[in-house]
Specification:
This protein is low in regular secondary structure. The chain is built from one helix and two strands; from the N terminus they run E-E-H. Strand 1 and strand 2 form a beta hairpin. The chain is globular and about 40 Å long.
Length: 85
């Protein structure tokens, strides 16, 4: 599949949950949000994700979340906190 942003050939995977062909940007399907690697126990992964405490990537064009090191899991950019008025 050709990436719409950079026009390079990118690896695609089929999501086992929604059957969408998606570019492998990270561990989760950007169509339905489920974990792409379905080999593990899905309920175990669902318990680990607390949506109320997640921090979204500060790059407004990215769909990723920030990990414990302060870096986006999808694009790899460091989190930049928005200035408050």
């Amino acid at each position: 599949m050709i990436c719409e942003k950079c026009a390079t050939e990118s690896e695609t995977v089929r999501c086992s949950h929604c059957n969408a062909d998606v570019i492998k940007l990270g561990s989760y399907c950007y169509s339905c949000g489920k974990l792409l690697d379905s080999e593990g126990d899905e309920t175990e992964h669902d318990d680990e994700i607390d949506l109320s405490t997640r921090i979204l990537c500060s790059d407004e064009a990215c769909i990723g979340v920030v990990n414990e090191e302060g870096v986006c899991k999808v694009c790899g950019k460091p989190y930049v906190q928005a200035a408050q008025e």
